[in-house]
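Exercise 7. Given the encoded structure of a 472-residue chain, write a plausible sequence.
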């Protein structure tokens, strides 16, 4: 009995696991999978982690430096200690020194701030790439679902042509119909079959594109709902985009890093003070057979009086790079604003077209039904009936396309605002958090010229709805 219960339990568990593995894949799950596995996101995430270590390197300037040196070897000496001749001795020496920076013109502080800004900038880049890649995942997801619906619509169109063909064939076999009508019905049926093959091929291509972006083949995708968070006006969308877009935040951090880099260059124009402690153990130095051990503690002052103008030129260079970072920020802002306005315009256009496309599809369906009744009583020709089927197929295809163009326009606008990942309920990557490696809030700084901000290229919209000529 226990064995039977165990077998039953295993069977039920296997069915549950199988059903779970075959569950439908939501849009949020597809975007989450993309952010976790897409190489573009992983590259930026690795860069963010590397900048954390750059902060640790810069902070090393606050800590003491300890050096140990030792040497042994033969020495030949001829000096006042070895006169009237020379001497060969086995020389031994060792030393231990500790140096602690007291003042370096705020160079170390500036370098820490610069690299902390790089962390901040890199974190925003991870967020920006997540939005960009997430939008590509949304586009491929919607494309798969759209192609599925068009494939189903093409199947219905093929079935309608098959029904008409059977009616014509039946009339022809009974001697009522004309041979020309049968041949025309056969031609239209063959074209409907060819369209079915094209629809299947388009769906396979959409699945392949989905796999390239998301990293896996689609699993039973379904039409998602309209996203939340779409603003009510263009001004609202622009306000959110300007204040929230990751690329703008990254560019702002780049400006702070440029300023910190200038302060770091200015530190070379100031003196440096170090506390230095040391001790040494030596034997047989300079031809004298004796031990020489010493220890010392001192403040060491160092100030460069002239370096050929190099340091001043470096400061001038860094200040010019500050201006460059500021202009990159302005350029990025314009690009973000342009992309947001284009997305808003696309949303307005697609929203305005959608009711008209639906009205066209509904009216075309009523016309098709009326033609079918009239054809059955001889008031319409076969050509009229087939043309009505073609027009209905085209109208329904345009309406499906229009729905997905309007839906994608909403997601694209959210991505331009930097809100796509959040609107889908997807957790952002840990590397996009703007904190230091030790968990402290990031300083308001970012990299200057080593990495210029990535330009905010507008996302490619889905194909616009086009009027289709009758296919069948």
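Solution.
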């Amino acid at each position: 009995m226990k064995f039977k219960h165990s077998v039953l339990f295993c069977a039920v568990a296997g069915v549950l696991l199988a059903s779970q593995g075959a569950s439908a894949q939501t849009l949020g799950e597809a975007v989450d999978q993309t952010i976790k596995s897409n190489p573009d996101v992983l590259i930026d995430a690795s860069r963010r982690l590397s900048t954390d270590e750059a902060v640790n390197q810069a902070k090393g300037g606050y800590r003491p430096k300890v050096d140990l040196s030792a040497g042994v070897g033969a020495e030949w000496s001829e000096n006042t200690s070895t006169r009237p001749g020379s001497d060969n001795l086995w020389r031994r020496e060792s030393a231990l020194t500790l140096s602690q920076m007291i003042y370096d013109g705020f160079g170390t502080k500036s370098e820490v701030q610069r690299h902390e800004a790089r962390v901040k900038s890199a974190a925003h880049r991870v967020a920006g790439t997540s939005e960009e890649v997430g939008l590509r995942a949304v586009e491929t997801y919607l494309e798969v679902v759209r192609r599925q619906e068009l494939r189903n619509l093409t199947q219905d169109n093929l079935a309608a042509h098959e029904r008409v063909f059977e009616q014509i064939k039946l009339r022809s076999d009974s001697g009522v119909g004309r041979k020309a009508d049968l041949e025309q019905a056969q031609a239209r049926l063959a074209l409907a079959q060819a369209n079915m093959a094209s629809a299947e091929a388009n769906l396979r291509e959409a699945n392949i594109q989905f796999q390239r972006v998301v990293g896996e083949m689609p699993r039973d995708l379904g039409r998602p709902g309209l996203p939340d968070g779409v603003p009510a006006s263009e001004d609202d969308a622009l306000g959110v985009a300007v204040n929230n877009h990751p690329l703008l935040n990254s560019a702002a951090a780049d400006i702070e890093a440029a300023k910190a880099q200038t302060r770091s260059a200015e530190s070379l124009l100031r003196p440096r003070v170090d506390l230095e402690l040391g001790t040494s153990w030596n034997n047989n130095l300079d031809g004298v057979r004796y031990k020489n051990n010493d220890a010392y503690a001192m403040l060491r002052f160092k100030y460069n009086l002239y370096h050929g103008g190099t340091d001043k030129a470096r400061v001038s260079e860094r200040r010019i790079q500050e201006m460059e970072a500021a202009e990159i920020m302005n350029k990025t802002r314009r690009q973000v604003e342009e992309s947001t306005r284009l997305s808003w315009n696309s949303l307005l256009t697609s929203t305005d077209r959608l009711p008209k496309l639906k009205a066209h599809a509904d009216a075309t369906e009523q016309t098709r039904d009326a033609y079918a009744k009239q054809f059955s009583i001889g008031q319409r020709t076969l050509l009229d009936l087939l043309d009505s089927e073609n027009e209905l197929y085209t109208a329904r295809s345009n309406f499906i396309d229009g729905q997905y163009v309007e839906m994608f326009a909403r997601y694209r606008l959210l991505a331009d605002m930097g809100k796509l990942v959040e609107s889908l309920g997807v957790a952002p990557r840990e590397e996009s958090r703007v904190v230091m490696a030790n968990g402290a809030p990031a300083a308001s700084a970012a990299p200057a010229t080593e990495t210029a901000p990535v330009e905010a290229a507008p996302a490619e919209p889905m194909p616009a709805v086009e009027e289709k000529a009758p296919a069948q």
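Remark. The CA atoms of residues 102 and 274 lie 5 Å apart. Students should compare their own answers with the one above.
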